[in-house]
């Protein structure tokens, strides 16, 4: 990696588009120096790129900074939605649903955890990740291995290894006998892989379709590896037949209910984390990177770091979701982690609204529920339904169901006398203008609207080479 | 020495299959930025075309030769239908086309399962393609040689079309600079449609020759689509040269690693190699130079 180091006042070189590294640490929420390059680059050959953000007139009423009361309308709505979700999940569902249905719901919540991460990486960050099954699978297999080892007892050998292998536990399994190591590994291993892959890919500006294809290839390779190494992974059958979960008997319905509550609380925490991330400076940067990566770079940030952080958070969520999936469902196999399930995660996110807070959760739970009930009675109908959902939602309703509400809001705004704020969020069908000149005020308007509306990600900003943007 | 030759040949053989699968993808991805996940299902359609044609024409040799152009037509028409109905609405959102075409792929797979049944079916290979010939002291299956031949013919034909015909000129102009092509009086919409037809047709041809390698099923395409996309990514877009080199490089690499380890580890290592390769050339092997920001 050849990188320029930051040399102080930049005599602007028109054809040098390298990021000014070290000028800013995007992940820190506190104010870092940002505006320097904007003033110097105006009027050069790339001047159009920053035309929308010329610093002479700062965007006037910034919604978060004004001297308003703490409980703004957006905050109130989010808080109300969050509280409603918490009450439904923690009080109503356990009281109403029988054990079997509650366990099913717990499984859906695990899938929703992956969806929350995808909402962050894809909906807010514009990274179409087709390989979340890998991180889900890493978390799931790590947990499954730990459960297998504890079931086998101290020094024991898991049953399937006696069946397929030579009856010895491989060395890299041994640390997973410890519950602490396992719990750490469930988060650390997916994050580590995501950071390594993210750094390798994003710093070289491999993005858009290239990134999507690479993430898909990762999922394919991971599933093939799991199948191929039957002696240590259980092969196609996967790992199953767990008896206890950290000392609690998995056959006991009370413990199953406990698992449901753990999953529900975990999911709520994740949603809260995403919300906090999105209202922070990092969240604004992430949306800005999605809408105009080059502009963010011109402002002195390193978009790669922003993307890596979001991608790693998504990986961590998927890993935790996978880890909880295992005791709840009782089996994990390569069929849960390959290319097909990895892309399957996306449909719920797309339906709920990829750039909304609760949309991915509601969408993925609804899709999983539909899948379960449809494929019980009409196995082949579900495949058609899933295909049709992909086609209809992505092609005709890219903002998801949440954008139906957003459309109303946009109409209201347009009718309002001062209708200038809605541009960035409602311009979904805008022409494929150049990346930079496209959406005036997109940086602030998109972040502003990110709380409740689903601004359709303008994916035309990720042009493949060979076409001028 | 024999082992080396046989690995080399295995690599060439894998590479030619990959090339056939990736050729059409490179074309459509390069021109329109559209990622067609249903490409694998067009291959599957081509394979089932060969199966249906063989049902009509008993002689295996004749039916294979008839299947090749018919498979091209079937794949091409499916592609044209997809382009006109869905993809043409989504040119401003290339990433979303990936998911829409994935939906199409799911539907086509299930359709094949409902029409032809879930179990795999077999297409008889003609007698003149069974057995092996002796090349440099190595017994080489004739079917594999035939596939390499079809791949070579396809590449040469496509290169000639791109280089010499008016259509090819229009395609190259559109790939290089869409706006300029449009202002020069080229109907880029019509060009897009034709490109999609040709690219999908090549998938159909690939499907037909794949029937020589084994039995075919509804998920035939899914097994090839990921690798085919990797070829396109590694090869770079906009020119055939990259796809050709990348396909054979990946084929040889896969065969070589499989020879020393196992097939599953080979997949992972190939992935690592590609990510490492993209560190050096993020746009792939062959890049069309523009002055736009990368």
Could you please describe the fold and organization of this structure?
Chain B: Belongs to the binding-protein-dependent transport system permease family. LivHM subfamily. Chain B: GO terms for molecular function: transmembrane transporter activity. Chain B: Its main location: membrane. Chain B: Keywords: Amino-acid transport, Cell membrane, Membrane, Transmembrane, Transmembrane helix, Transport. Chain B: This is Branched-chain amino acid ABC transporter permease. The complex is a heterodimer of chains A (469) and B (294). Chain A has 469 residues and is mostly helical. Chain A folds into two domains: 102-390, no CATH class; 402-461, no CATH class. Helices cover 59% and strands 2% of the residues of chain A. Chain A has helices at 36-41, 73-96, 99-124, 132-152, 159-164, 179-202, 209-228, 230-233, 253-279, 281-291, 293-298, 303-329, 339-352, 359-377, 379-396, 402-415, 423-426, 442-449, and strands at residues 239-240, 244-245, 248-249, 331-332. A two-stranded antiparallel sheet of chain A has the order 1-4. In chain A, a hairpin with a 2-residue loop joins strand 2 and strand 3. In chain A, helix 3 packs antiparallel against helix 12 (303-329). Chain A starts with 35 loop residues before the first helix and ends in a 20-residue tail after the last helix. Chain B is mainly α and 294 residues long. Chain B has one domain (2-280): ABC transporter involved in vitamin B12 uptake, BtuC (Orthogonal Bundle), CATH 1.10.3470. Chain B contains eleven helices and two strands, in the order H-H-H-H-E-E-H-H-H-H-H-H-H. In chain B, helix 3 (60-85) packs antiparallel against helix 8 (188-210). The longest helix of chain B is centred in the N-terminal third of the chain and has 31 residues, at 2-32. The model of chain B has no long low-confidence stretch (mean pLDDT 88). Chains A and B meet through helix 6, helix 7, helix 13 and helix 15 of A and helix 4, helix 9 and helix 11 of B.
């Amino acid at each position: 990696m050849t990188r320029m180091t930051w040399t102080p006042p930049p005599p602007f070189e028109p054809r040098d588009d390298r990021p000014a590294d070290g000028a800013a640490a995007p992940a820190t929420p506190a104010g870092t120096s940002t505006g320097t390059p904007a003033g110097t680059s105006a009027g050069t050959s790339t001047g159009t790129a920053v035309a929308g953000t010329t610093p002479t007139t700062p965007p006037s009423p910034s919604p978060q900074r004004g001297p308003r009361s703490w409980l703004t309308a957006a905050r109130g709505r989010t808080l109300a939605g969050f509280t409603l979700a918490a009450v439904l999940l923690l009080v109503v569902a356990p009281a109403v649903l029988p054990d079997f249905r509650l366990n099913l719901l717990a499984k859906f919540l695990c899938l929703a955890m992956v969806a929350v991460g995808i909402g962050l990486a894809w909906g807010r960050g514009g990274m179409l990740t087709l390989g979340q099954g890998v991180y889900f699978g890493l978390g799931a297999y790590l947990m499954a291995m730990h459960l297998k080892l504890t079931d086998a007892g101290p020094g024991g050998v898991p049953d399937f290894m006696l069946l397929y292998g030579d009856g010895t536990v491989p060395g890299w399994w041994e640390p997973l006998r410890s519950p602490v190591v396992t719990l750490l590994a469930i988060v650390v291993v997916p994050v580590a892989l995501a950071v390594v892959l993210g750094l390798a890919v994003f710093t070289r500006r491999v993005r858009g379709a290239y990134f999507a294809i690479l993430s898909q290839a990762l999922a394919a390779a991971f599933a093939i590896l799991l199948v191929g190494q039957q002696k240590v992974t259980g092969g196609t059958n996967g790992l199953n037949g767990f008896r206890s979960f950290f000392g609690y008997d998995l056959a006991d319905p009370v413990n199953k209910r406990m698992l449901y509550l753990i999953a529900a609380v975990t999911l709520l925490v994740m949603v809260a984390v995403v919300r906090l991330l999105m209202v922070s400076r990092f969240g604004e940067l992430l949306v800005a990177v999605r809408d105009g990566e080059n502009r963010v770079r011109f402002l002195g940030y390193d978009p790669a770091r922003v993307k890596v952080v979001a991608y790693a958070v998504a990986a961590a969520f998927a890993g935790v979701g996978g880890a909880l999936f295992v005791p709840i469902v009782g089996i994990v196999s390569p069929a849960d982690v390959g290319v097909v399930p990895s892309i399957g995660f996306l449909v719920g996110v797309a339906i709920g609204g990829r750039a909304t807070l609760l949309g991915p959760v509601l969408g993925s739970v609804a899709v999983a529920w539909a899948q379960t009930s449809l494929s019980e009675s009409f196995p082949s109908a579900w495949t058609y339904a899933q295909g049709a959902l992909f086609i209809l939602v992505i092609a005709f309703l890219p903002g998801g169901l949440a954008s139906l509400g957003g459309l109303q809001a946009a109409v209201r705004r347009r009718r309002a006398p001062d209708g200038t704020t809605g541009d960035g969020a409602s311009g979904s069908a805008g022409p494929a203008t150049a990346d930079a000149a496209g959406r005036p005020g997109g940086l602030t308007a998109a972040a502003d609207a990110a709380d409740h509306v689903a601004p359709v990600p303008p994916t035309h900003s990720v042009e493949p080479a060979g076409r001028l943007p | 020495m024999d082992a080396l030759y046989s690995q080399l040949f295995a690599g060439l053989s894998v590479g030619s299959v990959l090339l056939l699968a990736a050729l059409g993808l490179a074309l459509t991805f390069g021109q329109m930025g559209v990622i067609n996940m249903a490409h694998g299902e067009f291959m599957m359609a081509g394979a089932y075309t060969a199966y249906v044609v063989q049902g009509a024409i008993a002689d295996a040799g004749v039916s294979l030769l008839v299947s090749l152009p018919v498979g091209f037509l079937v794949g091409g028409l499916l592609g044209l239908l997809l382009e006109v109905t869905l993809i043409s609405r989504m040119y401003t959102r290339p990433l979303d086309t990936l998911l829409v075409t994935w939906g199409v792929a799911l539907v086509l797979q299930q359709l094949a399962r409902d029409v032809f049944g879930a179990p795999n079916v077999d297409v008889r290979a003609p007698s003149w393609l069974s057995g092996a010939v002796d090349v440099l002291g190595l017994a080489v299956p004739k079917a594999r040689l035939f596939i390499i031949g079809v791949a070579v013919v396809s590449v040469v034909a496509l290169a000639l079309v791109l280089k010499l015909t008016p259509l090819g000129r229009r395609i190259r102009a559109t790939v290089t600079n869409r706006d300029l092509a449009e202002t020069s009086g080229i109907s880029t919409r019509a060009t897009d449609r034709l490109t999609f037809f040709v690219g999908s047709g090549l998938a159909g041809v690939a499907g037909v020759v794949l029937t020589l390698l084994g039995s075919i099923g509804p998920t035939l395409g899914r097994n090839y689509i990921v690798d085919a996309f990797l070829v396109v990514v590694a090869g770079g877009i906009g020119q055939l040269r990259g796809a050709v080199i990348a396909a054979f490089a990946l084929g040889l690499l896969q065969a070589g690693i499989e020879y020393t380890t196992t097939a599953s580890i080979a997949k992972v290592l190939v992935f690592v190699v590609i990510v490492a390769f993209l560190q050096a050339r993020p746009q792939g092997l062959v890049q069309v130079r523009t002055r736009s920001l990368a």
